[in-house]
Amino acid sequence: MSTSDEPLLIVEAPASDVQVLRLNRPDKRNAIATALLLAIAEALEAGDASESVRCLVITGGDKIFAAGADIGEMAPKQAPEGLADPRPALWRRIRAIRKPIIAAVEGWCLGAGNELLMCCDIAIASREAKLGQPETNLGVIPGAGGGATLTRLIGRSRAMAMVLTGKPITAEEALQIGLVAEVCDPGAATGRAVELAQEIAARAPLAMQQAKAVIKATFDHPHSAHLDFERQAFSLLFSTEDKREGVAAFQEKRKPIWKGR
Q1: Could you say which architecture CATH assigns to the domain 205-252?
Q2: Angle of the 34-49 helix axis to the 87-95 helix axis, nearest 10
Q3: What residue segments make up the domains of the chain, in order of their start?
Q4: What pLDDT score does 85 carry?
Q5: Rounded (10°) angle between helices 87-95 and 112-119
Q6: Model pLDDT for residues 138-158, shown as the tens digit of each residue
Q7: Is it true that 9-201 and 205-252 share their CATH fold?
Q8: Residue 1 scores a pLDDT above 60
Q9: With pLDDT > 70 as the criterion, what percentage of the chain qualifies?
Q10: Looking at residue 224, what is its pLDDT?
Q11: Given this model, what pLDDT does residue 4 score?
Q12: If you write DSSP's letter for every residue of the chain in order, what string do you get?
Protein backbone atom coordinates (compact mmCIF):
# COMPACT_ATOMS: atom_id res chain seq x y z
CA MET A 1 0.00 0.00 0.00
CA SER A 2 1.38 3.42 -0.90
CA THR A 3 2.19 6.01 1.74
CA SER A 4 2.51 9.77 1.62
CA ASP A 5 6.26 9.30 1.23
CA GLU A 6 5.91 7.30 -1.97
CA PRO A 7 5.59 9.00 -5.36
CA LEU A 8 2.22 9.03 -7.08
CA LEU A 9 4.03 8.07 -10.28
CA ILE A 10 7.12 5.89 -10.51
CA VAL A 11 9.36 6.99 -13.39
CA GLU A 12 11.78 4.24 -14.26
CA ALA A 13 15.19 4.98 -15.72
CA PRO A 14 15.14 4.59 -19.51
CA ALA A 15 16.24 1.17 -20.81
CA SER A 16 16.81 0.45 -24.51
CA ASP A 17 15.44 3.94 -25.35
CA VAL A 18 12.17 3.10 -23.55
CA GLN A 19 10.87 4.76 -20.39
CA VAL A 20 8.19 3.19 -18.21
CA LEU A 21 5.81 5.28 -16.05
CA ARG A 22 3.92 3.38 -13.32
CA LEU A 23 0.81 4.76 -11.65
CA ASN A 24 1.35 4.31 -7.92
CA ARG A 25 -1.81 4.87 -5.88
CA PRO A 26 -2.74 1.25 -5.07
CA ASP A 27 -4.66 2.27 -1.94
CA LYS A 28 -6.87 4.48 -4.15
CA ARG A 29 -7.06 1.98 -7.07
CA ASN A 30 -4.76 4.32 -9.02
CA ALA A 31 -7.48 6.98 -9.14
CA ILE A 32 -6.17 9.82 -11.28
CA ALA A 33 -6.27 12.77 -8.91
CA THR A 34 -5.08 16.12 -10.23
CA ALA A 35 -1.67 15.70 -8.57
CA LEU A 36 -1.18 12.37 -10.35
CA LEU A 37 -2.37 13.82 -13.67
CA LEU A 38 0.19 16.62 -13.27
CA ALA A 39 2.93 14.08 -12.51
CA ILE A 40 2.00 12.12 -15.65
CA ALA A 41 2.07 15.26 -17.83
CA GLU A 42 5.44 16.36 -16.43
CA ALA A 43 7.02 12.90 -16.78
CA LEU A 44 5.80 12.52 -20.35
CA GLU A 45 7.11 15.98 -21.25
CA ALA A 46 10.48 15.13 -19.71
CA GLY A 47 10.60 11.92 -21.73
CA ASP A 48 9.56 13.80 -24.84
CA ALA A 49 12.49 16.19 -24.37
CA SER A 50 15.04 13.51 -23.47
CA GLU A 51 17.59 12.40 -26.06
CA SER A 52 17.76 8.97 -24.40
CA VAL A 53 14.03 8.21 -24.72
CA ARG A 54 12.33 7.25 -27.97
CA CYS A 55 9.15 5.56 -26.74
CA LEU A 56 7.18 5.63 -23.47
CA VAL A 57 5.03 3.08 -21.65
CA ILE A 58 2.32 3.87 -19.09
CA THR A 59 1.24 1.06 -16.78
CA GLY A 60 -0.55 0.56 -13.48
CA GLY A 61 -0.60 -2.30 -11.01
CA ASP A 62 -0.93 -6.02 -11.53
CA LYS A 63 -4.68 -5.94 -10.83
CA ILE A 64 -5.67 -2.45 -11.92
CA PHE A 65 -4.63 0.21 -14.42
CA ALA A 66 -6.73 3.08 -13.09
CA ALA A 67 -10.27 3.02 -11.72
CA GLY A 68 -11.14 6.57 -12.76
CA ALA A 69 -10.80 10.07 -11.39
CA ASP A 70 -10.57 10.71 -7.66
CA ILE A 71 -14.22 10.84 -6.54
CA GLY A 72 -13.30 12.45 -3.22
CA GLU A 73 -11.63 15.28 -5.10
CA MET A 74 -14.59 15.69 -7.46
CA ALA A 75 -17.42 15.42 -4.91
CA PRO A 76 -17.41 18.98 -3.49
CA LYS A 77 -17.02 20.76 -6.83
CA GLN A 78 -19.80 22.90 -8.27
CA ALA A 79 -20.08 24.16 -11.86
CA PRO A 80 -17.75 27.19 -11.38
CA GLU A 81 -14.98 24.94 -10.00
CA GLY A 82 -15.55 22.48 -12.81
CA LEU A 83 -15.17 25.16 -15.46
CA ALA A 84 -12.02 26.55 -13.80
CA ASP A 85 -10.48 23.12 -13.24
CA PRO A 86 -6.77 22.82 -14.22
CA ARG A 87 -7.27 19.26 -15.48
CA PRO A 88 -8.24 20.11 -19.10
CA ALA A 89 -4.90 21.88 -19.57
CA LEU A 90 -3.08 18.84 -18.17
CA TRP A 91 -4.92 16.51 -20.55
CA ARG A 92 -3.93 18.80 -23.44
CA ARG A 93 -0.28 18.58 -22.38
CA ILE A 94 -0.50 14.78 -22.38
CA ARG A 95 -2.12 14.70 -25.82
CA ALA A 96 0.63 17.00 -27.18
CA ILE A 97 3.48 14.51 -26.56
CA ARG A 98 5.32 13.87 -29.84
CA LYS A 99 6.91 10.51 -29.06
CA PRO A 100 4.92 7.25 -29.19
CA ILE A 101 3.20 6.18 -25.96
CA ILE A 102 1.98 2.64 -25.23
CA ALA A 103 -0.53 1.80 -22.49
CA ALA A 104 -0.21 -1.52 -20.64
CA VAL A 105 -3.51 -2.45 -18.99
CA GLU A 106 -4.12 -5.07 -16.33
CA GLY A 107 -7.50 -5.28 -14.60
CA TRP A 108 -9.82 -2.30 -14.35
CA CYS A 109 -9.42 0.66 -16.70
CA LEU A 110 -12.34 2.99 -16.05
CA GLY A 111 -13.30 6.62 -16.50
CA ALA A 112 -10.20 8.79 -16.44
CA GLY A 113 -8.15 5.60 -16.69
CA ASN A 114 -9.76 4.79 -20.03
CA GLU A 115 -9.34 8.41 -21.10
CA LEU A 116 -5.62 8.14 -20.29
CA LEU A 117 -5.48 4.96 -22.40
CA MET A 118 -7.00 6.92 -25.28
CA CYS A 119 -4.25 9.55 -24.95
CA CYS A 120 -1.77 6.76 -25.67
CA ASP A 121 -1.02 5.68 -29.22
CA ILE A 122 -1.22 1.90 -28.75
CA ALA A 123 -2.85 -0.09 -25.95
CA ILE A 124 -1.99 -3.61 -24.81
CA ALA A 125 -4.56 -5.22 -22.49
CA SER A 126 -4.54 -8.33 -20.36
CA ARG A 127 -7.28 -10.83 -21.18
CA GLU A 128 -8.75 -10.09 -17.74
CA ALA A 129 -8.87 -6.31 -18.27
CA LYS A 130 -12.18 -4.44 -18.14
CA LEU A 131 -12.54 -1.04 -19.81
CA GLY A 132 -15.34 1.45 -19.45
CA GLN A 133 -16.75 4.94 -18.96
CA PRO A 134 -18.99 4.62 -15.87
CA GLU A 135 -19.41 8.35 -15.16
CA THR A 136 -23.16 8.28 -15.81
CA ASN A 137 -23.47 5.99 -12.75
CA LEU A 138 -22.56 9.11 -10.74
CA GLY A 139 -24.94 11.43 -12.55
CA VAL A 140 -22.22 13.05 -14.66
CA ILE A 141 -20.60 12.29 -18.02
CA PRO A 142 -17.02 11.72 -19.19
CA GLY A 143 -15.08 14.98 -19.34
CA ALA A 144 -11.68 14.19 -20.87
CA GLY A 145 -12.36 12.27 -24.06
CA GLY A 146 -14.79 9.56 -22.97
CA GLY A 147 -17.37 11.14 -25.25
CA ALA A 148 -15.46 13.03 -27.92
CA THR A 149 -12.44 10.76 -28.43
CA LEU A 150 -14.14 7.44 -27.70
CA THR A 151 -16.76 8.09 -30.39
CA ARG A 152 -14.07 8.81 -32.99
CA LEU A 153 -12.20 5.63 -32.06
CA ILE A 154 -15.00 3.07 -31.86
CA GLY A 155 -18.05 4.69 -33.50
CA ARG A 156 -21.24 6.36 -32.34
CA SER A 157 -23.37 3.36 -31.40
CA ARG A 158 -20.70 1.54 -29.39
CA ALA A 159 -19.66 4.73 -27.61
CA MET A 160 -23.31 5.45 -26.77
CA ALA A 161 -23.68 1.97 -25.30
CA MET A 162 -20.56 2.29 -23.14
CA VAL A 163 -21.35 5.78 -21.85
CA LEU A 164 -25.14 5.56 -21.45
CA THR A 165 -25.12 2.20 -19.66
CA GLY A 166 -21.87 2.77 -17.79
CA LYS A 167 -21.09 -0.93 -18.25
CA PRO A 168 -17.47 -2.01 -18.87
CA ILE A 169 -16.40 -4.13 -21.80
CA THR A 170 -13.92 -7.00 -21.85
CA ALA A 171 -10.45 -6.84 -23.36
CA GLU A 172 -11.59 -9.05 -26.25
CA GLU A 173 -14.49 -6.69 -26.98
CA ALA A 174 -12.09 -3.74 -26.81
CA LEU A 175 -9.85 -5.52 -29.31
CA GLN A 176 -12.74 -6.16 -31.69
CA ILE A 177 -13.80 -2.50 -31.74
CA GLY A 178 -10.27 -1.11 -31.98
CA LEU A 179 -9.92 0.39 -28.51
CA VAL A 180 -6.86 -1.79 -27.86
CA ALA A 181 -4.33 -3.22 -30.31
CA GLU A 182 -3.47 -6.52 -28.62
CA VAL A 183 -4.72 -8.82 -25.88
CA CYS A 184 -2.23 -10.86 -23.88
CA ASP A 185 -2.13 -13.28 -20.96
CA PRO A 186 -2.78 -11.91 -17.46
CA GLY A 187 0.34 -10.36 -15.99
CA ALA A 188 2.01 -9.95 -19.38
CA ALA A 189 0.72 -6.55 -20.49
CA THR A 190 3.65 -4.45 -19.30
CA GLY A 191 6.23 -6.87 -20.64
CA ARG A 192 4.54 -6.97 -24.03
CA ALA A 193 4.18 -3.16 -24.08
CA VAL A 194 7.89 -2.74 -23.34
CA GLU A 195 8.77 -5.29 -26.03
CA LEU A 196 6.68 -3.37 -28.58
CA ALA A 197 8.11 -0.05 -27.36
CA GLN A 198 11.64 -1.37 -27.89
CA GLU A 199 10.70 -2.40 -31.42
CA ILE A 200 9.38 1.10 -32.14
CA ALA A 201 12.34 2.76 -30.40
CA ALA A 202 14.71 0.89 -32.72
CA ARG A 203 13.11 2.53 -35.74
CA ALA A 204 13.74 5.99 -37.23
CA PRO A 205 12.74 8.41 -34.42
CA LEU A 206 11.69 11.37 -36.53
CA ALA A 207 9.64 9.13 -38.81
CA MET A 208 7.90 7.65 -35.73
CA GLN A 209 7.02 11.13 -34.46
CA GLN A 210 5.77 12.36 -37.83
CA ALA A 211 3.74 9.19 -38.36
CA LYS A 212 2.11 9.69 -34.96
CA ALA A 213 1.34 13.33 -35.76
CA VAL A 214 -0.24 12.46 -39.10
CA ILE A 215 -2.43 9.68 -37.70
CA LYS A 216 -3.55 11.84 -34.75
CA ALA A 217 -4.51 14.61 -37.18
CA THR A 218 -7.43 12.41 -38.28
CA PHE A 219 -9.33 13.90 -35.34
CA ASP A 220 -8.58 17.51 -36.24
CA HIS A 221 -8.72 17.94 -40.02
CA PRO A 222 -11.11 17.25 -42.88
CA HIS A 223 -9.76 14.65 -45.29
CA SER A 224 -8.43 17.07 -47.94
CA ALA A 225 -6.51 19.14 -45.37
CA HIS A 226 -5.33 15.95 -43.68
CA LEU A 227 -3.85 14.70 -46.95
CA ASP A 228 -1.98 18.01 -47.35
CA PHE A 229 -0.65 17.73 -43.78
CA GLU A 230 0.45 14.15 -44.38
CA ARG A 231 2.31 15.12 -47.56
CA GLN A 232 4.05 17.99 -45.79
CA ALA A 233 5.22 15.71 -42.97
CA PHE A 234 6.33 13.12 -45.54
CA SER A 235 8.32 15.73 -47.50
CA LEU A 236 10.03 17.23 -44.44
CA LEU A 237 11.58 13.84 -43.64
CA PHE A 238 13.43 13.93 -46.97
CA SER A 239 16.00 16.32 -45.49
CA THR A 240 16.85 14.18 -42.47
CA GLU A 241 19.99 12.11 -41.91
CA ASP A 242 17.75 9.17 -41.02
CA LYS A 243 16.13 9.25 -44.46
CA ARG A 244 19.53 9.19 -46.16
CA GLU A 245 20.68 6.40 -43.85
CA GLY A 246 17.51 4.37 -44.42
CA VAL A 247 17.85 4.54 -48.19
CA ALA A 248 21.57 3.78 -48.08
CA ALA A 249 21.04 0.80 -45.75
CA PHE A 250 18.34 -0.59 -48.04
CA GLN A 251 20.57 -0.24 -51.09
CA GLU A 252 23.55 -1.74 -49.25
CA LYS A 253 21.43 -4.55 -47.77
CA ARG A 254 22.35 -3.79 -44.16
CA LYS A 255 20.56 -2.74 -40.97
CA PRO A 256 20.15 1.06 -40.67
CA ILE A 257 21.68 3.02 -37.79
CA TRP A 258 19.14 5.64 -36.76
CA LYS A 259 20.30 8.91 -35.19
CA GLY A 260 17.09 10.85 -34.85
CA ARG A 261 18.42 13.70 -37.00
Answers
A1: Orthogonal Bundle (1.10)
A2: 30
A3: 9-201, 205-252
A4: 79
A5: 30
A6: 888 888 899 889 999 999 999
A7: no
A8: no
A9: 95
A10: 80
A11: 61
A12: ---TTS-SEEEPPPBTTEEEEEE--GGGTT-B-HHHHHHHHHHHHHHHH-TT-SEEEEE--SSEEE--B-HHHHTT--HHHHHT-SHHHHHHHHHT--S-EEEEE-SEEETHHHHHHHHSSEEEEETT-EEE--GGGGT----SSTTHHHHHHH-HHHHHHHHHH---EEHHHHHHHTS-SEEE-TT-HHHHHHHHHHHHHTS-HHHHHHHHHHHHGGGTS-HHHHHHHHHHHHHHGGGSHHHHHHHHHHHHTS-------
How large is the average pLDDT for residues 224-229?
78
Check residue 143 and give its pLDDT. Answer: 85
> Which CATH number applies to 9-201: 3.90.226.10, 1.10.150.170, 3.40.50.1820, 3.30.420.10?
3.90.226.10
pTM of the model: 0.89
